[in-house]
Amino acid sequence: MATNIPTELRYSKTDEWVRVEGAEVVVGISDFAQHALGDIVYLELPSVGAVVQAGASFGVIESVKASSDLNAPVGGEVIAVNNELEASQEAINQDPYGAGWLIRLRPSGDEDELMDAEAYAAHCAERNH
Amino acid sequence: MHKRTPLFETHVAMGARMVEFGGWEMPVQYHGIIEEHRAVREQAGLFDISHMGRFMVRGSQAEDFLQQMLTCNVAAIPFGQASYGLLCQPDGGVVDDVFVYHLLDEFLVVVNAANRDKDWAWLNQHSSGFDVELEDRSERWAMLALQGPQAQSLLAHAPDSTTSDLAHLPFHSVALTTIFGFTALIARTGYTGEDGFELFFEAHHAADVWNGLLALGQPGSVQPCGLGARDSLRFEACLPLYGHELSPHINPYEARLGWVVKLDTGDFIGRDALVAIKAQGPARRLAGFELLARGVARSDYPVHNLNGMPVGHVTSGMPTPTLGKPLGIALVPSTLSAEGSEFDVIIREQPVRARVLKMPFYKPRYKKL
């Protein structure tokens, strides 16, 4: 199955994506990750105002099959959380780069090791075999 | 290199997501676990379970031999019927849980995929002294499961088949039939908590039978299903999964399978130990539970009593598609196993309070005549 990897985003080794929007960043999980997890049924996200560390867990995502940590690709203060997902986690499966976004951060400058789309595509391909 | 069933190429061509399971490369899902799970509860789902082991046991002492190996009363299985049974170690720990089908002058024993080699060795190792012949038919035969409330009526209209009168095939019965022109054994058995059938037939017909079953009814009447839905379906019905609810370190009484142990029908491996365990009462038991706060308990998460002492572990746990909430099964001290008892499940280092529920979570809807 072809994995959708938008070129304008950057990606973490643990399959979160980052989109820079001015002075803020938006974080979600990649198409590869949502596909690997399967139907997402539970989500635990931080509250607005929480401070997350780059590379550290900021939440939990659960499918029927597995629990998975959400790791912050960049550190910063949480300024918005996608509350719509509480009622419709399936948005993460259907639209992981759009309606399935998870949190919005004011970045602190602290960053995990991030990849561009090309490097991330290779990272996904490695795990498909 | 993982082993593959005769349907491997078919699964890949149909877009299934393949994973490793017990040494096998198997489909975990086609369109999504929840959709597949619902299809089986509401209509019908088709599973490739050719990875399971199929052993034939025959000879003048086949019945005596199996009676010695299994906890169930093999002598009481009528011709054409199947029974659930356990292979136990001398100390009562479980080697495997199996289905035994009484066929014409032979028995078919279906074992778990991950235990195929171990069980084959175990049976052979104990067969000396018996006039018995064992044959491994796992490669020669494929095995499919068509499960769900519509399974019977869909099979009734299968072309070139003799499956029109399955209403007369009782629960846990097995019969010779013709499906799409191929000879097959069909049994009213399964692992989903729904009515349904399992089919055994020559492996080289696997793709024909698979495609034929998927084409029954209207498009979409039969949903191809992977191991993900198989696990969530059996979990809701509290059917044990070897390696989780059963293991060499868990005995049948702890697993609440005392009903499968017939202590009064002659000797079998593990009987002495099980007599003693039953007399004393098992120190631990499986307990189904719900969480009283947010979270999902997963296999191997620790269980603490309310004083914070480690006392057990979760054997299976997941968000349940039919019941709509996360549930779990844990192996805990018997004192904590009664309905309403409470303990803590440690989820990511945090204790989350759990309360014991009655099992099964989902009451099976078997069709018993």
Model description:
The complex is a heterodimer of chains A (129) and B (369). Chain A has 129 residues and is an alpha+beta fold. Chain A has a single domain (10-110), classed as RNA polymerase II/Efflux pump adaptor protein, barrel-sandwich hybrid domain (OB fold (Dihydrolipoamide Acetyltransferase, E2P), Beta Barrel), CATH 2.40.50. In chain A, 18% of the residues lie in helices and 41% in strands. Chain A contains three helices and ten strands. In chain A, the strands form two sheets. Chain A has a seven-stranded antiparallel beta sheet. A three-stranded antiparallel beta sheet of chain A has the order 4-6-7. Chain A is globular and about 35 Å long. By secondary structure, chain B is an alpha+beta fold. Chain B has three domains: 8-52 and 139-236, Probable tRNA modification gtpase trme, domain 1 (Gyrase A, domain 2, 2-Layer Sandwich); 53-136, Alpha-Beta Plaits; 283-357, Elongation Factor Tu (Ef-tu), domain 3. Chain B has eight helices and 19 strands. In chain B, strands 10-11-12-9-3-13 form a six-stranded mixed beta sheet. In chain B, strands 14-17-16-15-18-19 form a six-stranded antiparallel barrel. In chain B, strands 5-6-7-4-8 form a five-stranded antiparallel beta sheet, with helices on one face. In chain B, helix 2 crosses helix 7. Chain B is globular, with a radius of gyration of 21 Å. Chain B starts with 7 loop residues before the first helix and ends in a 12-residue tail after the last strand. The mean pLDDT of chain B is 97. At the A-B interface, strand 4 and strand 6 of A face helix 2 and helix 7 of B. Chain B: Residues 284-363 form the Aminomethyltransferase C-terminal domain. Chain B: Pfam families: GCV_T, GCV_T_C.
What would the keywords be for this entry?
heterodimer; A: OB fold (Dihydrolipoamide Acetyltransferase, E2P); 3-stranded antiparallel beta sheet; B: 369 residues; Gyrase A, domain 2; Elongation Factor Tu (Ef-tu), domain 3; 8 helices; 19% helix; lipoyl (chain A); Glycine cleavage system H protein (chain A); Biotin_lipoyl (chain A)
